[in-house]
Amino acid sequence: MKEMLTMCDLPIGKGRDATISRLLRQQFPASEIKFQELRTLYSNHILVGQKVIRFFNVKEEYIDKLICLFEFYEIEPTVYQKHYPFPVPDEDLTGIDALPKLSHIETTDENISLVFCTRRSFTERTEIDIGDFNTEIQEKLVYYDKIYGTKRCIYQFFDIIVIWRNRNLVEIRIDITKNSLSQEYDNSFSRITKSFNSLVDTSLGIQEILRNRVNFFPLIDKLYYSQNEGKVFELFFTTDEGSTKKEIIKKDKGDLRYETYHNAGKNAVHHITAYHLAILWNFIISKHIQSQTIDIETQVELILPGKYYILSSTNPTIEQIIIEECGFIEQYKFIFNIIDKYLKS
Amino acid sequence: MKVSKESIVAQIYEDWGEKPQSQICIVLLNYLTHLPKGKHYHITFGSLKVVIGNSYTNTDLLKAIQYLCGDRTRLLDTNFELLEDERAVPLSHSDIEIAQATGELIHPKTGYTVKNFEEKVSLYFVPSSLTENII
């Protein structure tokens, strides 16, 4: 958010509340253009921010049909669509069913993005301070070190399906939260794939259009051995003597590929077999503000989240990737082009 | 009994001729004979894929591995393990034979039946005794 405000030349306060109060003091109409710009950046952020992603190969003829279908598609009115790009207020979310609803369509020269909104519920577990209870209850709880409460929380998620023109490719990007479990991703992917496949089946008579998932596993070695591509900060691998290594380097330090300990180990064996990689790139976004160019330094991360047992498979497969710290379309395009380049190489 | 590397190479060519498996088997033979002796190994399919590089398909590699696990040119022995989260429990060949015959895998440590065991059992390779005797 901080980068977005900087890009719109809007003030930033110390913390969320201070920033909001500074923004509220902005003079209209001078700042109206800036707020409009912020809204556009926020809408773009919904398309690319904090996502777990799957790619699907789709025949060219089907891509053409999908583009024809969705270019002028009329979305059924829903409460999500009414509020888009902003989330539905919490009190209105509880009454909505949990099915993904097509809420917005974004069309560019390169692709068409379909935004599906969903309500998902989670059970959150929070520690309760024993000191908050009265003395009588505190006495009853004297033998407990910690007390936990669970509550059911409901959040709105923005899941995206991107139909790429001239690429024979469809992407699904699922919203993620910090504590999401991989099982939750699978459920979300399955729900949105089902909704989309059913919509396409009904409209175009094409059954199960999203079924050929792209395997990202080969990207691990291609990126790791690419020398100058990004900075590797997590590498999990096995050796043929039966050990599993999980190496992590602080993001602001060097690159694992050139770290002394890592290199010494790697050079001592014939090869290592990697199954998980996290890599980041420094990315500068340039913005013209009042006749001067401001460079905003950002970092974007690509995670190829593998488990060690995939190496036992006769076709080691990673079907989803995570892109983190990505808030701008430019950053996503940058990473997307790298993925595309190495998948084809 | 000592066996010459040349005789194994000749046998591989005799069996596979110009097929990609000849090259794959020879790359794997070279790799296995260069491993330090007297150590324990745990070699996955993914690792053997790294050894042979990107020029061959998974199917080509799989055929070569099946051949190298066979009686004629046994360079690899197979082993099994049960994968539980981040840990692996070794399984004996008899555990697997019983599971295949009965459709039920008994956990070697707890004695309980393992649900959906087909998804949890993993295969890996170790260099055979023949590799120790190649000169």
Structure overview:
The complex is a heterodimer of chains A (345) and B (135). With 345 residues, chain A is α+β, with helices and mostly antiparallel strands. Chain A has two domains: 50-214, no CATH class; 217-344, no CATH class. Chain A is 33% helix and 30% strand. Chain A is built from eleven helices and ten strands. Chain A has helices spanning 2-7, 16-24, 32-48, 60-71, 79-83, 90-93, 135-140, 182-204, 217-224, 260-268, 329-344, and strands at residues 51-57, 101-107, 111-128, 147-164, 169-175, 231-238, 244-248, 273-289, 292-304, 321-324. A ten-stranded antiparallel sheet of chain A has the order 2-3-4-5-1-10-9-8-6-7, with helices on both faces. In chain A, a hairpin with a 3-residue loop joins strand 2 and strand 3. Chain A is globular and about 65 Å long. The model of chain A has no long low-confidence stretch (mean pLDDT 89). Chain B is α+β, with helices and mostly antiparallel strands and 135 residues long. Chain B has two domains: 5-74, no CATH class; 79-122, no CATH class. In chain B, the strands form two sheets. Chain B has a three-stranded antiparallel sheet. In chain B, a hairpin with a 2-residue loop joins strand 1 (76-84) and strand 2. The N and C termini of chain B lie close together (10 Å). The mean pLDDT of chain B is 94. Classes of the chains: A alpha+beta (345), B alpha+beta (135). Chains A and B meet through loops of A and helix 3, helix 4 and strand 5 of B.
